[in-house]
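ARCHIVE CARD
Drawer: 12
Card no.: 0347
Subject: one protein chain, sequence and derived structure
Cross-reference: see card 0346
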Amino acid sequence: MMKSPDQALYDYVFTQSTLKGYTTYDHLPMSSENAAYPFVVVDTVQTAPIATKTGYSAQLSIMIHVWASGDDRIVASTMTSNLLQMLGFTDFETNGYAFAPRNQQSQMMQDTSVPDTVLWHGVDTLVFDLK
């Protein structure tokens, strides 16, 4: 069975993050998982289909989250930047689909949503055209 474009993109990003040596999850780890910081969460994929005369195209966006402890801003920033540079500026092919970078954004913020904890949270939003 051929993967959908969004699954192909998700799997590619997940694999590249793992190959970079980052602990990577497909969900925000639960407290019972005892996840150590820093880690990456490959999150939402959004697809905007585009009808063409010759078939199907789309624009896909994917969000990648980096989480690090409050005293490791440099780690979170470096990981967020590395993922952006590694994934967001070069065309690639995977599972029979070709993706071209379109518009990338990166954000670094402090997070205090866990009681008595300060974390650094980096977010990359990568947008690709399906070629």
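Annotation on reverse: The CA atoms of residues 13 and 87 lie 7 Å apart. The first helix runs from residue 5 to 19.
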